Amino acid sequence: CKDHTGTLRKTYIFRCILSYSRKGYTEAVTRLTTESFIRSMENAFRVLGGVTKTVVFDNAKAVVKQADWHDPELNPKINSFCKHYGFALLPTRPRTPQHKGKVERGVDYVQENCIKGMTFESLALQNQHIEQWERSIADTRIHGTTKKHVGKQFVEFEKGLLSPLPKEHFPLYEEGVRKVSRDGH
Questions:
Q1: Using one digit for the tens of pLDDT, what is the confidence trace for 25-40?
Q2: Rounded to the nearest 5 degrees, what angle is found at the Cα of 140, between the Cα atoms of 139 and 145?
């Protein structure tokens, strides 16, 4: 997509997939940061109409400070976000791609079927295109593995199992390192 100066910028795909119905939420972002992960995950919960009990995520630096097979260390903001929404985030085991399962193929599906070869005038237009594609194509398909209609499975079986959304969005803040001189300025 193009930024505010008209320069083409690379975008990254955030993809969230529910494990039973394979209902997905997709969002393009320009940076892979803790803040962008939190906002994308929050947007996914809002679009889905509720919160899952667990989220399995890879060991991206924005989410996991220290990957470990038995005791991974999450970013403190991520811990706060999980408490605010009432879900458990389970990082995948390091160097085990089979644990990423559904989402890895889901990102490829979006890239190959939704945005391949396309250029967008803005990030907002790209996300608008993705949202429309998600509703009209991804949700209406018969999933290759489950052999069931994605949208119907979500509405009939999964939507009612989601926990309610909190009344307020997660309060997001940015942290930064500043150098202070001896006189406190």
A1: 999 999 999 999 999 9
A2: 80
CB 9 within 8 A of CB 141: no
Residue 11's closest CA among 96, 119, 146, 87?
119
Q: Which spans in 86-136 are helix H?
A: 101-110, 123-133
3-state secondary structure 44-71: HHHHHCCECCEEEECCCCCCEEECCCCC
The residue written with tokens 């209609």 in the block is: 149
d(CA 94, CA 72): 10
Cβ neighbourhood burial of 117 (10 Å; 0-12, 13-18, 19+):
exposed
**Would you call 147 exposed, middle or buried from its count of C-beta atoms within 10 A (0-12, 13-18, 19+)?**
exposed
Q: In angstroms, how far is the first alpha carbon of the chain from the final one?
A: 40
The answer to whether 29 touches 36, Cβ cutoff 8 Å, is: yes
* Per-residue tokens: 31: 């940076």
Tens of pLDDT, residues 1-13: 777 777 788 899 9
| pLDDT of res. 177 | 82
Residue 98 has pLDDT above 70, yes or no: no
Amino acid at residue number 161:
L
Q: How far apart are CA 180 and CA 162, in angstroms?
A: 47
Confidence (pTM): 0.86
